[in-house]
Amino acid sequence: MATKTCTKCGRSLPISEFAKEKKGLYGIRSQCRECEKERLKKFYQGTKEARVEAMLKHRYGITLDAYRSMLLDQEGCCFICGKETELVVDHETGQVRALLCRNCNVLLGVAHEDPFILAAAIQYLEMFDRAVEDREA
Ligand SMILES: [Zn+2]
Ligand SMILES: [Zn+2]
To answer: Which residues have CB less than 5 Å away from ligand 2 (the ion)?
Structure first.
C-alpha cells in the first residue's frame, strides 16, 4: 500500500489519509487529514477570537482582555439578576457599564433606562403582592 509521511506529525500513513490537493507535487497534501483538521480548528479559533475582539473594539471601545476581566469580576453572572448565562455588554453613550444577560438588557431598554419607571414597577409589584397576601389572610 502506498504510504506517505506527514510533514507535521511525522507518521507514515496510507495515501487515503491525506486530502487531495490539485496543486500538490503528488496530488495530495503534505499534512495528514488529522493534522489538517487540527490546523483548521486552530485557525478558526484564532479568527473567532479576532472577530470578537474587533466587534468589542468597534461597538464598545474595549479590548477582549477588558471584557474578560469584567466577566471575571462578575464571576460570569449577570450584574442585575445574577444568572449565569450569555452576557452582553451594557453600554450607554459610549460608556461601558457592566455585563448583563439579554433579558436584563432588554428590561433596561423597555424601561427607557429610567430609574423612576423601574422604581414604580417595583412599587407596583409590591402593591400587588400585598393585595394577594391580604386576600389570603
Ligand atoms: Zn499528521
Ligand atoms: Zn440578568
So the answer is: 78, 80-81, 101, 104
Ligand nearest to the CA of 37: 1
All three cell numbers of 127, joined, read 402593591
Which of 77-90 are b and which e, b meaning 16 or more Cβ less than 10 Å from the residue's Cβ?
Answer: bbbbeeeeeebebb
State the alpha helices, DSSP H only, in the chain.
Answer: 33-60, 64-73, 102-110, 115-136
**Which phi-psi region, left, alpha or beta, contains residue 27 (left: φ > 0; alpha: ψ -120 to 50)?**
left
CA of 82 to the centre of ligand 2 (A): 6
Q: What is the tens place of the pLDDT at every residue in 11-56?
A: 999 989 998 887 766 688 889 999 999 988 888 788 888 888 888 8
The rounded Å distance from CA 15 to ligand 1 centre is: 12
Q: Distance from the CA of 18 to the center of ligand 2, in angstroms?
A: 48
Q: Which ligand is nearest to the CA of 103?
A: 2
**Looking at this protein, which amino acid is placed at residue 43?**
F
In this prediction the pTM is 0.55
